[in-house]
Amino acid sequence: MSDFLKIQGLEARIDADGTPKEILKGIDLEIPKGEIHAIMGPNGSGKSTLSYVLSGREDYEVTGGSATFKGEDLLALEPEERAALGVFLAFQSPVELPGVNNANFLRTAVNAVRRARDEEELDAVAFLKAVRAETKRLSMSDEMLKRAVNVGFSGGEKKRNEVLQMRLLQPSFAILDETDSGLDIDALRIVADGVNSLRGPDFSALVITHHQRLLDYIVPDRVHVMAKGKIIYSGGPEVAKTLEKQGYTQFLEAAA
Amino acid sequence: MPAVTETRETVEKLAKSSYEWGFETDIEMDIAPKGLNEETVRLISARKEEPEWMLEWRLKAFRMWLEMKEPEWAKVSHPPIDYQDAHYFAQPKKKPGPKSLDEVDPELLKTYAKLGIPLHEQALLAGVEGAEEQKRMPVAVDAVFDSVSVATTFRKTLEEAGVIFCPISEAIREHSDLVRQYLGSVVPAGDNFFAALNSAVFTDGSFVYVPKGVRCPMELSTYFRINARNTGQFERTLIIVEERASVSYLEGCTAPQRDENQLHAAVVELIAMDDASIKYSTVQNWYPGDDEGRGGIYNFVTKRGACRGARSKISWTQVETGSSITWKYPSCVLAGEGSVGEFYSVAVTNNHQQADTGTKMIHLAPNTRSTIIAKTISAGKSDSTYRGLVRMQPKARNARNFTQCDSLLIGDQCGAHTVPYIESRNMTARIEHEATTSKISEDQLFYCRSRGLSEEDAVGLIVNGFCREVLKELPMEFAVEAQKLLQISLEGSVG
Q1: Which of A130, A217, B185, B407 satisfies CB 3.0 to 4.6 Å to B437 for a cystine?
Q2: Is the C-alpha dihedral spanning A236, A241, A242, A248 positive or negative?
Q3: Which residues of chain A does B452 touch, with a Cβ-Cβ cutoff of 8 Å?
Q4: With an 8 Å Cβ cutoff, is A98 touching chain B?
């Protein structure tokens, strides 16, 4: 199943105050079904851009290459169509929605996705049951469901809320964009457990991180090193450890 | 509450297209000739079998109106209105009470069905004999069907509590003293151009009287419909709540689709005595005109409440999504010591709609308090203005006001304006004003869409969140309807 997620020569740019700025300069990446891959790289290497382009953010212009998911041209789909197809992005900085009740937001999202996947919608009771089971697993208080989406949430609460959404939406491919940033060690464990429990033959993930720490808990099948808009090295989980000890320099030099 | 559920489900079913309620009912009508003069006023008064004092009151208002000029200060524009080119009176011809729904004019029933009125409620509205025994609903409806209340439901339950809820024309005949004492005491006939016009030619509306110590046992509700071609509708509503009494009144509006603009100039007067409270909620969804701005209702309304008694409270909540032009400032005159005025408003404009709306809080007495929460949403090429006055009079010691005006813009061709007037003549009074203007951000839209929501659903969700502080003030059944309306009103406003 090598054609699960297939990215070839992907190039993308963003409009930076009137001048286009190339950010992705030819990404090649394949993530087979059931595998978890990690991307590591210095700031500004294009990691977050890759996650936005894959999930459909409009600010980025794809100038070359392709990305297919389950055989479909991912780049031709609207963000909500990608979500229905099974793509999920856990945001690095989750967005606040003032006045929008979190539980209502979650239920609207879950049912929108279920509708699109020809699954039966959850009524209020069934939804509450499902969401309570998940909040318990993530050590979240019920009170967080009553608050406005991400408004006044601490950094850790926001990240847990992202993982909560991921678990409820049941994606087949999740992108976690620096989900570990701002988490203490306990929260990190809880979040990692949330991801690991989805692990299975029908779930793949792309974990974007700065630190090897998260990869102690979510052990990746492959680790890719990204710099200057390209993937410059790929290897097994041991790459993360090497990076942590020696930094990016040797990879950058080897690629040069 | 099965009736509420039923109503809600019907509303949900109805809320599908951009304006499904654009239909016209073909019923035999009794129509006055076009034009406005003293004869028109006399004819209306005669048809309503009004006492002599009422006719005199109308004529006086009419003569004042002749001397007045249409106001031009509002930030709205429209072609001049020809007041002689409209009918001022239209009513369905009366038939003897039908025995069952089968005998009711099917056109009337169709109208009710499109409005989403539950079947057993329809029977009551249509005056089916014996239908009143089946009443088991928590909402009383006084349907104003083109200037004439076809029927008033739930009167018995209300009568047992001592509450009077009836068409104002009936109140003028049967509760003449009460009407004479209070009519025009909050909004004088000569208050403004449209109030004077209304005073001269109003044809119907509702009257509510809640006696001392009585909490009205149900929400009072009125459906207003404008149904005859070119009849400006001039409702007059008068609500009097005595000491320690309370009432919640719901007003909902829909209108059939039209090519010509229709004038609507209502007057609402509220009076609250010591420790009384009045909650007045409006969902206004009149025909806003088409995408090009043709047609639609001109909604020029004067709404004012008088907190006459100590610790009395008047609360206005409105959700305004309809009409091509809205000109409306539900206000509170806080004359009783420690009285409270509240104004919660959501105004949505889309396409070419114009809204100039807000409130006036006039603090006359010590320790009076007022709260204003105004949410304005503009989309398309529409223009929306919040215009509010907070006035602290010399005797208003320790009076307080808090005002919050938030504007949300959708797209880049609409406008939102905030015009607060603040006048304080008392050093101890405290006035706070907060205002924000924002756009729905790309971040918010993308976040929602990446969770599977369509762009329109995302906008609906964000807009409803923006309005939450106001929507939570609405009675439950209205809140659901209002959320639907917000979404319908903004359909096609993004992308």
Answers
A1: B407
A2: positive
A3: 80, 83-84, 109, 112-113, 116, 169
A4: yes
Q: What is the DSSP letter of A229?
A: T
- The conformation of residue B459, written as its DSSP 8-state character, comes to H
Taking an 8 Å cut-off on Cβ atoms, the answer to whether B452 and A112 are in contact is yes
> Which residue of chain A has the CA closest to B446?
A57
Give the DSSP letter string of A16-27. ETTEEEEEEEEE
For residue B327, give how far its alpha carbon lies from the nearest alpha carbon of chain A (Å): 28
CATH number of A131's domain:
3.40.50.300
CA distance B490 to chain A (A): 17
Q: Measure in Å the smallest separation between the Cα of A172 and chain B Cα atoms.
A: 14
- Are B468 and A88 in contact (CB < 8 Å)? no
Tens-of-pLDDT digits for all 495 residues of chain B?
Answer: 333 344 444 434 433 334 444 445 555 556 777 778 888 899 889 988 999 999 999 999 999 999 998 887 777 777 788 888 777 776 655 444 555 666 655 655 655 555 555 555 555 555 555 444 443 334 555 555 544 443 445 666 788 899 998 888 889 999 999 999 999 999 999 999 999 999 999 987 889 999 999 999 888 876 544 444 444 578 899 999 999 999 999 887 554 445 455 778 899 999 999 999 999 998 877 777 776 767 777 888 999 999 999 999 999 999 888 778 888 899 999 999 999 999 999 988 888 888 888 999 999 999 999 999 999 988 888 888 899 999 999 999 999 999 999 999 888 888 888 899 999 999 999 999 999 888 888 899 999 999 999 988 898 899 889 998 888 888 776 777 777 777 766 766 664
Phi first, then psi, for residue B441 (nearest 5°) are -85, 155
Q: Which residue of A has its CA nearest to B448?
A: A109
**A:B CB pairs within 8 Å:** 77
- State which residues form the domain around A81: 5-255
- Is residue A57 less than 8 Å (CB to CB) from chain B? yes
CB within 8 Å of chain B, chain A residues 189-248: none
From chain A, pick out residues whose CB is under 8 angstroms from the CB of B466: 98-99
Give the 3-state secondary structure of residue A163: helix
Number of domains making up chain A: 1
Torsion angle, alpha carbons of B486, B488, B489, B494, to 10: 100
Question: Which one of A59, A82, A100 has the shortest CB-CB distance to B461?
Answer: A100
**Other residues' Cβ atoms within 10 Å of the Cβ of residue A19:** 8
Q: For B457, which of A83, A91, A108 is closest by C-beta distance? A: A108
Q: Distance (Å, rounded) from C-alpha B180 to C-alpha B442?
A: 57
